[in-house]
Amino acid sequence: AKTEVCETGLWRYSRHPNYFFEWMFWCCWFLFAASPSIVSWLSLLAPLLMYWLLVHVSGIPPLEDHMLRSRGQKFRALQQRVNAFFPGPRRQDIHPEGELK
Known about the structure:
Structural class: mainly alpha
Radius of gyration: 17 Å
Strand content: under 5%
Distance between the termini: 26 Å
């Protein structure tokens, strides 16, 4: 439903697993470009730029603003329980309704 938040599968561990795995894809370009040449180290700029764009500019910030407007307190509670970008353990001290246990 349009008022619910997803907490199943990968979304249980990250609010934006799609962005995380897209960034992982960009990290692989460095592995493909790696060589003894100093120029190959410039390929590190791609994952750094993508991380910055996804986390601070065009990915997470506008989507989270939209989710807060459309899902309200349910999404705010999810923000307190689940990491935004890097998958990780959930913080269990918050109920889905946003109240402390």
